Amino acid sequence: MFRPSKIGFALALCASVALAACAAPPPAARQAAQPQTFVISAIPDQDPEKLNRLYGKVSDYLKEQLGVQVVYKPVTDYAAVVNAFRTGDVDMVWFGGLTGVQARLQVDGAQAIIQRDIDANFHSVFIANAAAGIQPFDDISGLTALKGRTFTFGSESSTSGRLMPQFFMNKAGVALSDLKGEPGFSGSHDKTIKLVEAGTYEAGALNEQVWKSRLAAGEVDTNKVIAIWRTPAYYDYHWVVRPDVEQKFGAGFIQRVKQAFLALDAANPAHKEILDLFGAQKFIETKNENYADIEAVARQIGKIK
Fold it and tell me: Is there a contact between 188 and 156 (Cβ–Cβ < 8 Å)?
C-alpha cells in the first residue's frame, strides 16, 4: 500500500495554505470591497416618531438619487450628534444654527450646504400659559413681562429654543436671574409646548415652524397656551457635511447631495411628502458665512468659548 511520506504531506499542506492565502484578499482589500454607507443624522428637536418618519424618507430618497447606501442614525441629544459628527460616526447632519457652528468649528473643511427656504428668515416664538395673564405684544420691550415668571427653553443647545430667545431677552433687559427660579430646559420644542400648556412653566420659547405645524395639526390647546411674541428673523437649520465624503464616495459627491435636495419638487407627490414633513416649500443653498451672526451671539452668551 502506498503511504505518503511526512515530507510529502508537509509540502502538500504548505501548498494548500499558499493557495488559500493567494485566493483570500488581505483584510484592507476586503474592507475596501465593501460598499460605503452614507450616514445621516439630525438634532433631536422634535418627537422621535416624527423624526424617524422624516429621516427614513430622506434616507430612501437620497439612496435613490445618489446610488449609495444611506442610513439615518438617531441620537439622544444635541451634544451627542455634534460629537458623532466630529468623530466621523455620521457623514452629514441636519443641525440648528448653533449646533452647526459648533460642529464645523471641530471639523476642518466641514460645509453648510443646504437649508430650507424658511431657514434664511427663521423666527422663534414666545408662548405663555393663558392663566398667567401675559398679553401678546409687538415690541421687544414686552419681554419684560417675563420678569418674575417661571420660564422654559428647549434644549440647552437649541438655536431657536434657547440661543436666540436668550439673546432677545438680554437685549430687552431681561436676565435669566430676573426669572422666577432657574429656567427650565425641556429638551425639545414639542415638550416646551406641553410644559407651558400644562402650567408647569408660565412661559417658554420655541421654533416657530414647530409651533405653526402643531397648531395646524390641532395638537395645541389654544385655550391654555398662546403665542405672545415673534422674534426678528435669523438664519437657522441647515445640512452640514464632512469633507471626507469626497474620499469615500468620489469627487463631486457633495455637489450631488446639494442637487438631490434642490431637485425636491412640491409638484411631485413623493417629494411633497418630504417637504411637508420639513415644513418647507423647497430647499436652497447656504454657506458657512451665513452663520457668522449665530456664532457671535453664541460667544456673547458663552455657548462657544
Answer: no
CB 35 within 8 A of CB 69: yes
Residue spans in the chain of domains classed CATH 3.40.190.10:
34-120+236-300, 123-230
CATH fold, domain 123-230, is D-Maltodextrin-Binding Protein; domain 2 (3.40.190)
**pTM for this structure?**
0.80
**Distance (Å, whole) CA 248 – CA 250:** 6
Under the banding of pLDDT at 50, 70 and 90, the label for residue 35 is confident
Dihedrals φ, ψ of 230, to 5°?
-110, 130
What cell was used for 155? 434644549
| CATH domain 34-120+236-300 topology | D-Maltodextrin-Binding Protein; domain 2 (3.40.190)
Cα 138 to Cα 145: distance, rounded to the nearest angstrom: 13
Q: Chain-wide mean pLDDT for the chain?
A: 90
Over 70: is that where the pLDDT of 3 sits?
A: no
